[in-house]
Design a protein that fits this description.
This protein has a single domain, classed as L-asparaginase, N-terminal domain (Rossmann fold), CATH 3.40.50.1170. Helix content is 27%, strand content 31%. The chain is built from four helices and ten strands. The strands form three sheets. Strands 4-1-5-6-7-8 form a six-stranded mixed sheet. A two-stranded antiparallel ribbon has the order 2-3. Strands 9-10 form a two-stranded antiparallel sheet. Helix 2 crosses helix 3.
Length: 176
């Protein structure tokens, strides 16, 4: 899919759905919440991507624990639309239910025309020492290098739908 020596920009759709990675500090409650999608403005100014063009689609802004079947269908439908436009899609998603969404989407699109990589973070992108930037950058690169399919990129590891689980004690994912 990707020529490692190409200087032609690769177009990547980035679908944001909320989750911890997009949470911001809410002064009214003193807590973190999904109020506005600020992912692109928090992450991209600090990245240097001369051979990558990002197209942000702010689809949802919810904690993934509150996702309904309709939300997962919306994500699946948007991925289908984006794959008609671009060969690579990165989905920014909450870590608690990313496995459910991936299973839903991969069952509806069993032979995707492009590469879809999900990612998220244990700490919000707007906070100090967040893992968001690392996970997002790794997901971008993975979307360029992997064959068509559905993947989770997280903490320098890749997983396929149905082959992983979240380990809350370690704050990461692991193989089943």
């Amino acid at each position: 899919m990707f020529n490692m020596h190409s200087t032609k920009p690769i177009d990547i759709s980035v679908i944001t759905t909320g989750g911890t990675i997009e949470k911001t500090y809410d002064e009214a409650t003193g807590g973190l919440s999904n109020t506005v999608s600020n992912f692109g403005s928090v992450i991209t100014p600090q990245l240097r991507l001369p051979y990558t063009v990002l197209y942000f689609i702010h689809l949802l802004n919810k904690d993934s624990q509150k996702f309904s079947d309709d939300d997962r269908q919306l994500i699946s439908d948007q991925i289908r639309i984006e794959l008609k436009k671009r060969p690579c899609v990165v989905v920014v998603h909450g870590t608690d239910t990313v496995h459910k969404t991936m299973n839903c989407v991969s069952s509806q699109l069993p032979s995707p025309s492009g590469t879809v990589v999900f990612t998220g973070a244990i700490r919000p992108a707007a906070l100090y020492q967040s893992d968001a930037r690392q996970n997002f950058c790794e997901a971008l690169l993975a979307s360029k290098l992997l064959p068509p399919g559905f993947y989770l990129s997280f903490h320098n590891n890749l997983y396929q739908a149905g082959d992983f689980r979240k380990n809350p004690k370690k704050g990461t994912f692991e193989n089943l």
